[in-house]
Structures are given as C-alpha cells and as structure tokens.
Amino acid sequence: MQNSFQYPIGTPGQKWTEKEVALWRQSTSVKRLYSTDVLPKIDALRDAFDVIQYGALSYDQERFPLFAIKTKSWNANKPTILVTGGVHGYETSGVHGALQFANENANDYSAEFNIVIVPCVSPWGYETINRWNPNAVDPNRSFYQDSPAEESANLMAFVASLDTNIWAHIDLHETTDSDESEFRPALAARDGLEYIEDNVPDGFYLVGNTEKPAEEFQKTIIGYVEKVTHIAPADDNGNIIGSPVVQHGVINYPLKKLSLCTGMTDCEYSTTTEVYPDSPKVSEQECNDAQVAAVVGALDYLRAKM
C-alpha cells in the first residue's frame, strides 16, 4: 500500500545528487565499534584458523580492515564452502552468527570441506547500523564488475584469489523493522520513487536462487532452523516481502540479475538467511543460534551428498 511518509532528505520525485548523499552521510553516527565488537573475536580464532586480511575500506584503512577466516587443512581436492556475514553491516546476527559458527562448528567440517568465513563485509555499516555504505550504495546490490561499492569489490577480489570453485555459499542476513521505518523509505527517496509500504515478516526465512533453487537444500536448512526459532509465515497473498513462497519459509530471487552477494559465483548451492531480530519471541542469542543452525544444516546436507 502507498504511504504518505516523506523521507527528510531530498525532494520527492527527484533522485539524490551528491548534495543529498552528503546530507544523508552527515545524518549517520557511530553507534558501536567494529574494533571492540568484532576484531577481538576474529583475533581469538588465529590459533585454530588461518586469518587473512584481504583489504581495508578506504574511508579509514586502520579502522576498517577486512578479514577472512579459513580452515587450516585447505586442500584443492575438497569442495569449498563460503560463509559471509555483515554484507549489510546493520544486520547484527549475520556478523556474530558467522563468528559463532567459526568458533563452535567450522572445524567439525574441515575434514570434508575447505571453509572460508568472511564475518563482516561492511564494517562501516556495522558501526553506523546502516544498510548502505557512506556513499549511499547498497553493497548487496553491487556484486558485479567495476562495483561502485568497495565492500563488494574487495570481497569479489578475495574470493577470486582463492582460485577454487565455490560449491556452496551461505550469506547471513536479517530483516528488521528498520527496513520499513528507515531503509526502504531512504531507498525510495534516493532513487526519486514513491515509497510503497510493505510488511516485515515475523520469523526466519530463506532466499534461494531462481536459477538454481536447490529445493531439498533449502528444506533441510529450514528444518534445522525451526528447532531454534520460528519460521516466517506467508502473508495473505502467499508472499514474503513481495515474493511468492515456494515452500515453507523459502522465496527465490534472480541472484545475478539483482547483483546479490550469493550470485557472485556460479556455486551449485546458495542460500541467504533472513533472521527477524525484532520479534518479541526471540533473543539476541537465539538470532545468532539460528544463523549457526542454518550453516550447520547446509553443511550436513552437503556432507550427505558427497
């Protein structure tokens, strides 16, 4: 439905210029610290994993180094699994769920798989609790050649440097109430469009690949997650966030067309998790646990396929 809400930056019907982007950037503020919340958890994994700095954000290279965590028993004959978090930096359980999986579970699968975990793709977004980067660009719509988002470009370059085929990619996200109160209205304003209100689904769901839906893979993951948290129901139109529900808790997107993170490789299996942290039914820890359950469910499915 239409909404009369007018975003405070920009002129309705007109795309933002650099002036509006600068005003938007000035409206952001640091709300938490990457150096306090995330980097110590990465450092604590150095004995158990190979921790690699694959870049740094130009906004402040000392403040925003980019790290990946790799299992030590890397072998070109093993399939490679990619786990990413914090592509949208504000999605907290994506970051901390990835780190929890690394700390508690990843090495349980290292005999069968090469596993690489990139826990916080967008640390500026993490600190300011933002979907975009400082240039009002969404990293999760920017996974293509000559990307305007350095977060995306750095990750793509790193994955290419691994010189291995990615068999599966699990990208950890959240859908929050702020998607409707802030981020989607800001997107409409930035692009000179009318904001059309939608509902935020109460519960966990997955986004699969329209071109490679991998139905049993997605079904297995949902089965693991619903032991931890509730799964989002379809709305009255049979949709979740405007897309048809293809099975319990699963919708599909054309990943490459939309330049999403899980579309950056030609992997056979991919899924994007969506945790709902604003539900009164869940705690912060349960959100992290749901992310871990999704990755574990994916790996158990793939282990059985070998």
Automatic annotation (TrEMBL):
Signal peptide: none annotated. Pfam families: Peptidase_M14 (PF00246). One of its GO terms (molecular function) is metallocarboxypeptidase activity. It comes from Vibrio hangzhouensis. This is Zinc carboxypeptidase. The keyword Protease applies. Belongs to the peptidase M14 family. InterPro entries: Peptidase_M14. SUPFAM superfamilies: Zn-dependent exopeptidases. Residues 30-306 form the Peptidase M14 domain. The lineage of its organism: Bacteria, Pseudomonadati, Pseudomonadota, Gammaproteobacteria, Vibrionales. Coiled coil: none annotated. Keywords: Carboxypeptidase, Hydrolase, Protease. It comes from the Bacteria. PROSITE patterns: PEPTIDASE_M14. GO terms for biological process: proteolysis.
